[in-house]
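Hi V.,

Quick status before I head out on leave. The structure for the redesign project is tokenized and pasted below; the design run finished overnight.
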């Protein structure tokens, strides 16, 4: 179910063993992973910039083959191939990020399994003990800080996980701890960071001449989604989301500055320039 939980835990465990704090471990691992994906982000930005420069030609094809979608797709693919553009490159960072999120979900929900390397039998024994005592057990993370769980962990000769992050218990969920003000802090920060990221993304899209329709919808959709998921998930996932959003925002700003300073005009062939005629010259004058 959790596609990257096991390989991700191989990175998380040694860092946790070094600093002995679950929250800071999540922050460090999130930053490291985002830094490793910078080349993919730059590749994605370059691909989108090239595609944007081809918009006049794409619009021409769209008008020409308005009643023949198959022919339009064929000619569009030829155009992409001619100028070395991979339309999937723009989606790659998003797809990779989705897989990473699934990995973090697995680790955050099952820390006894992925952080302490406890066997299913050992984990089930703890769960059975708590349920026999009348505790409602839904997710492994919810009983990790329980006194009985800590006793069982110590009995196995293992050190209980330190879930305290700046006075916040990262195993708690906002949905079941609405009265605890500390539980609100990280989810609220995650939502605010998402709002800021959506605003910046929309401005970057507008300044680069891209259509702002998608950016406008994301301005509302992403914060709502973030609010919902941080409400139902452990605070550890909210911390991951906040950190990842902030790092991605900074990465996006820096990448955009680099792209603006190093932007090169796509060298259209003579035939394509003739096809565009005045529209090609107008596009150059705008720049």
């Amino acid at each position: 179910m959790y596609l990257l939980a096991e390989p991700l835990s191989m990175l998380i465990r040694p860092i946790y063993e070094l600093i002995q704090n679950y929250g800071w471990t999540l922050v460090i691992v999130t930053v490291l992973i985002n830094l490793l994906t910078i080349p993919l982000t730059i590749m994605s930005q370059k691909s989108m910039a090239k595609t944007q420069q081809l918009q006049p030609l794409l619009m021409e094809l769209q008008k020409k083959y308005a009643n023949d979608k198959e022919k339009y797709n064929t000619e569009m693919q030829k155009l992409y191939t001619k100028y070395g553009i991979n339309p999937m490159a723009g989606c790659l960072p998003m797809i990779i990020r989705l897989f990473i999120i699934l990995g973090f979900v697995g680790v955050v929900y099952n820390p006894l399994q992925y952080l302490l390397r406890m066997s299913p039998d050992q984990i089930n024994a703890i769960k059975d003990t708590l349920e026999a005592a009348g505790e409602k057990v839904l997710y492994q993370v919810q009983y990790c800080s329980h006194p009985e769980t800590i006793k069982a962990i110590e009995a196995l000769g293992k050190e209980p996980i330190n879930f305290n992050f700046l006075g916040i218990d990262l195993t708690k969920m906002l949905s079941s701890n609405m009265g605890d003000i500390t539980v609100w802090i990280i989810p609220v920060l995650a939502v605010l960071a998402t709002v800021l990221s959506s605003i910046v993304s929309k401005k970057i899209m507008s300044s680069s001449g891209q259509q702002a329709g998608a950016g406008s919808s994301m301005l509302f959709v992403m914060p709502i989604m973030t609010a919902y998921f941080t409400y139902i998930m452990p605070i550890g996932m909210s911390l991951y989301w906040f950190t990842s959003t902030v790092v991605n925002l900074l990465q996006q700003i820096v990448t955009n500055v680099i792209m603006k300073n190093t932007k090169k005009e796509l060298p259209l062939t003579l035939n394509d320039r003739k096809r565009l005629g005045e529209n090609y010259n107008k596009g150059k004058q705008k720049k």
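Above is the designed sequence. The longest helix spans residues 235-262.

G. will cover questions while I'm gone.

Best,
W.
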